[in-house]
Amino acid sequence: MRFLDACLRKPVDATPVWFMRQAGRYLPEYRAIRTKASFLEMCERPDIAAEVTMQPVRRMGVDAAILYADILLPVRPMGIKLEFVKGEGPVLTPPVRTPKDVARLRVFDAQDGLGFVMETVKLVRRELAGKVPLIGFAGAPFTVASYLVEGGPSKEYRWTKAMMRGEPVLWNALMTKISKVTVGYLQSQVKAGAQALQLFDSWVGVLSKEDYERSVKPHSVRVLAAMKRTGVPVITFGTGTSPFLESFAATPADVVGVDWHEPLDAAWKRVGLGRAVQGNMDPAYLFLPRPRLKDAVKAVLDKAAGRRGHIFNLGHGIMQHTPPENVRAVSDWVHEWTAR
Predict the structure, then answer these.
(1) Is 171 exposed, middle or buried (0-12, 13-18, 19+ CB in 10 A)?
(2) Which residue of the set 9, 59, 70, 308 is catalytic?
(3) Is 147 among the catalytic positions?
(4) What is the spatial distance between Cα 22 and Cα 317, in angstroms, rounded to a whole number?
(5) Is 25 annotated in the active site?
(6) Known catalytic residue: 101?
(7) 2-338 architecture in CATH?
């Protein structure tokens, strides 16, 4: 399969393409299901989650499916209430800010606490029937920790940075628990049938290089090393990593996902030309008129320069209201223009 081969920098017949958040609100078939079930219900019902996972595979001609789930699903069996509030996003209660709060968090068995996710993986693998591989995923320890400490999304990360800098022992205890949960969760996804794994560190770009290297990277490396031992290709992805991209890339991951903040060729040099790279078109460009969109796709492919190990993707997830026909066009152009 060309996606798995590209992860390992093997020759491929065309550059593989998939899109972060390729299953979601921009698709009319997704919105039709969403009118009948809440977001959490969609994640918890394997029949629905499997169907949503398959929707972009059928429509977009992508080279990989990514499991329909959410990076915050593990917080519930850890003992945290999780709600998705319209206009606010995820709300986690109670926030985790004291030694007692951290001590109360449970390290659970993934099959018991998130068995519905594993059932979704099994259903999707049967549906895919070997056509394209399935990517499993989890949130990286820092991103999950920031939600737990802040109680939801944040613009300032005041509580998170205060714990990281002011209470390093407590911070490490929290990150260690999250890491253990994450490793078990990802190992279970592979046992259920996931053929590649991606670790999403969506908010790591709010950190300085010093804070990342001292307080975050050791935990991420521990998780990525355990992912690597599962025997499937491993992708690490973060947004806003340009200030410390070399350090972010220096992990056991097979593939480094890069965002859109710098050109792909420059990012690849910093990652190391002997590594596979995923990215990195700006998701906003999917709203461009076709001629300008073509230019944007060509720009990424030109900067990849036909090197082995390029996986075409966006610099972050597909945005709401993105025209589905533009997503399909990008997939087709990438395959057409890079066919060997």
Answers:
(1) buried
(2) 70
(3) yes
(4) 7
(5) yes
(6) no
(7) Alpha-Beta Barrel (3.20)
